[in-house]
Amino acid sequence: MKKPRPLSPDAMALVARRFAVLAEPTRLHLLHTLFDGEKSVNTLVELTGGTQANVSRHLQTLAHAHMVSRRKEGLQVFYAIADPSIFKLCELVCGSLEKSLTKQADSFAEAP
Amino acid sequence: MKKPRPLSPDAMALVARRFAVLAEPTRLHLLHTLFDGEKSVNTLVELTGGTQANVSRHLQTLAHAHMVSRRKEGLQVFYAIADPSIFKLCELVCGSLEKSLTKQADSFAEAP
DNA sequence: ATTAAATATGCATATATGCGTATATGCTTG
DNA sequence: CAAGCATATACGCATATATGCATATTTAAT
């Protein structure tokens, strides 16, 4: 019997949205690049190789979800990871992913 | 300095896909309903209130991602949570979500 | 073998989401 | 005040995904 919470319908939508924010390679790339500390938009553009518009958009999505923080300093805007649970989240997913991969390498490749 | 792994580009895509599977209220509802044990498709249809076709499709998506297991018994098919990390994942997200909600209730309501 | 029940799939559609390009906003400096 | 740089936004388009409806598939029973 493991029923942590009643889990109201709209609470579920919020959780889903949270996962959706993480369901994007570009955003994961940005988060991963921020793992070792705060960086400006331009730096992130250079490090990730994305276009400036895209990086900015994705950073806003992350900021809106309170996953990264935004600090303005002169012309530049610095983003940093704001939610520490993101580290654990990625660890968990990477961990269980590795287990799946070592067993059946193509399981995810053909997913919908 | 927290760089868990090199994080190859296609590994990131896999992680993103994994999160994407969880980024769906219907699938979260199904997982949550399975928290207290294995259930048949029909039971899940009744408990979640979704259509049979939808429930079946979403269960397949979950099974394809190795998050649930599939056991056939006569006419019925029983699904159960296969990846224990899902419990921790949901706990993490729900936890950090609650913190965000108690601070700013509308932050997510207007997300993109 | 036929029929019925449980589950899965095909098709069409609506909605959402990401990207490229161009442009707007904001801040700093001369 | 004008000009330039860093960042954010607007628009159009292509793609993906969820859903409803209908139907196919699989298994059990008579």
Question: What's the short version?
Answer:
Two copies of one chain form a homodimer. Chain A is 56% helix and 12% strand.
Write down the overall mean pLDDT of chain A: 86
Oligomeric description of these chains: homodimer
Domain count of chain A:
1
Q: Work out the largest interface and the residue count of each chain.
A: A-B, 50 and 50 residues
CATH class of chain A, please? Mainly Alpha
What Rg of chain A is obtained from the alpha carbons, in whole angstroms? 16 Å
Low-confidence regions of chain A? 105-112
Strand content of chain A: 5-15%
CATH superfamily of chain A: Winged helix-like DNA-binding domain superfamily/Winged helix DNA-binding domain
The strand count of chain A comes to: 3
- Tell me about the largest β-sheet of chain A: 3 strands, antiparallel
Main sheet of chain A: which strands, in order across?
1-3-2
Q: What is the number of helices of chain A?
A: 5
What CATH architecture of chain A would you give? Orthogonal Bundle
Measured between the Cα atoms of the first and last residue of chain A, the distance is 31 Å
Q: Which structural class should the secondary elements of chain A be placed in? A: alpha+beta
Estimate percent helicity of chain A: 55-70%
The H-and-E topology of chain A, N to C, reads as HHEHHEEH
Provide the CATH topology of chain A: Arc Repressor Mutant, subunit A
